[in-house]
Amino acid sequence: MIKKILILLLLSVIFMLGCSTSFFDKIATNNKVPDPAVKPVVKSFAVQDSIVIDWNNNSDVGADGYVLYRAMWTTGIDPSNLAYSQIYSGTNLTYTDYVGNYNEGTFFYYKIAKKRESKEFDKSDYAAGVVSRHTALQNNNSLDTALDIDNFNTLNLNIYYACDGFGNEIVVSDYFKMLIPAGVYFEYQIQFPTNSNIPTDGLAIYNYEEVTNVPTGTGSGSGGNVNFNVYNRTTSGVYCMFSVSVNKSQYFGNPSPTSGVEEFVMGYYTLAFVGSFPVSVQ
């Protein structure tokens, strides 16, 4: 009889150890304290009039819920010292915060906290977002996503810059790349709409990789247009890259402001191909 009992106990232990989620794993999970929360990912241009907050980077088997907190920019108060109010509690890992009733360029700050049963753990550091009436501003907002200009069609530029005066900046630039034959330069023109709130000296053009002689500044402009050249002085065709962004020094001084003053500028422009011309090879 004792032998049969021992055999049954042994089989039970083997069965538990063989389960994909063992009895001991469940105990370990139930006793796990959530990892410290890290600041969420904030997207200002994913949904019009809304800020999207994503905290997939906080997914944790030790947590059974999450609490999202928000604060709004306030004159002269560092975002770390603002009073944060709860705007969501639950198990989701994303939240869309409608902010369409606030002025464009207004900064909001978000923190995430993890929960386990009735206990809430420490909040993360804050992440900043900004109110925008526009979407799809970030399609080619980095070198990795530079738009390949494979024809000479006219393109749209989407430029945005916001700062909160406490070292937080939200920047939307446009990055482009093009294959330029040996001994050739391409001339481009940025055309400003009449309702632009950025003057012709308010854009900065920067060069990357094989591009040479692209002005760091604004090129030359007249009649609301800015012309600049992208050169290939090598003996073979190469990809050249450039970006166009807000010229911060024209508005806020250099380096970026830390005055506690909230400001933003934005604009939509046209990038037009003027022509290709020969240049000496070096």
**What gap, in angstroms, lies between the N and C termini?**
96 Å
Shape: elongated
CATH class of the largest domain: Mainly Beta
- The tally of helices reads 3
Strand content: 35-45%
Question: What is the topological layout?
Answer:
Blueprint: H1 2-18, H2 23-30, E1 41-43, E2 50-54, E3 65-72, E4 85-90, E5 94-98, E6 107-116, E7 119-120, E8 127-130, E9 147-148, E10 155-163, E11 169-172, E12 174-180, E13 184-191, E14 203-209, E15 220-222, E16 225-232, E17 238-246, H3 248-251, E18 263-278
Parallel strand pairs: 9-12
Antiparallel strand pairs: 1-2, 2-5, 3-4, 3-6, 6-7, 6-8, 10-11, 10-18, 12-17, 13-16, 13-18, 14-17, 15-16
Short description, anyone?
By secondary structure, this protein is mostly beta strands. The protein contains three helices and 18 strands. The chain has two domains: 41-130, Immunoglobulins (Immunoglobulin-like, Sandwich); 143-278, Jelly Rolls, CATH 2.60.120.380.
Tags for this entry?
five-stranded antiparallel β-sheet; mainly beta; 10% helix; 3 helices; Immunoglobulin-like; six-stranded antiparallel β-sheet; 41% strand; 282 residues; elongated; Jelly Rolls
Walkthrough of the structure:
The protein folds into two domains: 41-130, Immunoglobulins (Immunoglobulin-like), CATH 2.60.40; 143-278, Jelly Rolls. Strands 11-10-18-13-16-15 form a six-stranded antiparallel beta sheet, with no helix packed on it. Strands 3, 4, 6, 7 and 8 form a five-stranded antiparallel beta sheet that branches. The protein has a four-stranded mixed beta sheet with strand order 9-12-17-14, with no helix packed on it. 30% of the residues are buried. The chain is elongated, with a radius of gyration of 27 Å. Mean pLDDT is 79; it is low at 20-29 and 209-223. The N and C termini lie far apart (96 Å). Helices cover 10% and strands 41% of the residues. A hairpin with a 2-residue loop joins strand 15 and strand 16. The chain has helices at 2-18, 23-30, 248-251, and strands at 41-43, 50-54, 65-72, 85-90, 94-98, 107-116, 119-120, 127-130, 147-148, 155-163, 169-172, 174-180, 184-191, 203-209, 220-222, 225-232, 238-246, 263-278. The chain contains three helices and 18 strands. By secondary structure, the chain is mainly beta.
